[in-house]
Amino acid sequence: MLLPYLCVILCFQGVISQRNTRELDSLLQDYAFRAFVRPRTGIVYDGKVPSNLTGIGVAALRLRSGSLRLRGVSYKEFHIPAGVVEQPYVERLVLVYQNLGNWSSLYYPLPGYTFLAPVLGLLAYDATYLSATNLPELEIEALGDPISITFPDVQSGHSRVPAMCVYFGFNGSVRFNSVVKGNTCLTTSQGHFSIVVESIAAPAPAPRGGGGGRGGAGGGSTSIGGGKWRNKKVWIISCAVIGGAALLVLLALIFAYVKRCRRRKKIQRMEDAAELGVPLPMTRVGYTKVPVALETRTRPLLENEYLP
């Protein structure tokens, strides 16, 4: 019974983050379309973002669908090969480019991983109305060779942990893939991409005075990230207990309400059955109507008829 409530608690933070990223995509689409002062097909137009988003880069490129499908295009860090189609079909489309820079970890938090490159986004929109806002994204798919993203400046990671490509979907999903040629990621659809490496926590200090313990050297082993997991576990248990208590109170109120409704229906049925019999005057006693007899039905007879 508590499992659905616990799942809602665990997904709450992810839902908030997903909502913020969707709002950012809509905002950057607006500023990218504003760069089309005198739009020409096949020309990259760099947009300007407001001062409160300094550090984020945005650009727009308008293309014909047929040209994109037959020839492909190289656009910033993205190389789109021939064979890419969009759904639903439009005659012209706009590819909006995003570079979140130092805002990457804020809008796309990834606990346990370190970003080695900024998050880059590629989103497709209908180019029919270049002054429109809050447009829905088109779905683009590479039917042949995949789309490649080459990150020019990739920070060095841990030598013991290999770097990985990460893909952030519109529905909040996260997928990992191998890095190609040290700084290239491959994809078959649009979205947001980056290169990350798994974080390695510093080893915990060895316990003092533990030389005589059972197990010898094996007794000093430590677990990576144990403190974070314990804190997270305590938080989950606390939220589950509070949520369970609230759920029990809610169920108790619902049970009391249902019981009261059933009692009212039973009394109503009794009243209806009584009204179908001998009609009697009714009066109210408390919250219930009951029949009453105002006079006797038979007159009394004397036991001795010779009395005067």
Provide the helix percentage.
Answer: 25-40%
The SSE order reads HEEHEEEEHEEEEEEEEHEE
CATH topology of the largest domain: Chondroitinase Ac, Chain A, domain 3
User: What's the CATH architecture name of the largest domain?
Assistant: Sandwich
Main sheet attributes: strand count, strand direction, barrel closure = 8 strands, antiparallel
Q: Compute the CA-based radius of gyration.
A: 36 Å
- Reading off the top of the CATH hierarchy, the class of the largest domain is best stated as Mainly Beta
InterPro entries: DUF1191
Signal peptide: 1-17
Transmembrane segments: 234-258
Keywords: Membrane, Signal, Transmembrane, Transmembrane helix
Describe this structure in words.
The chain is built from four helices and 16 strands. The chain has 308 residues and is an alpha+beta fold. The strands form four sheets. Strands 1, 2, 6, 7, 8, 11, 12 and 14 form an eight-stranded antiparallel sheet that branches. Strands 3-4-10-13 form a four-stranded antiparallel sheet, with no helix packed on it. A two-stranded antiparallel sheet has the order 5-9. A hairpin with a 5-residue loop joins β11 and β12. The N terminus is likely disordered. Keywords: Membrane, Signal, Transmembrane, Transmembrane helix.
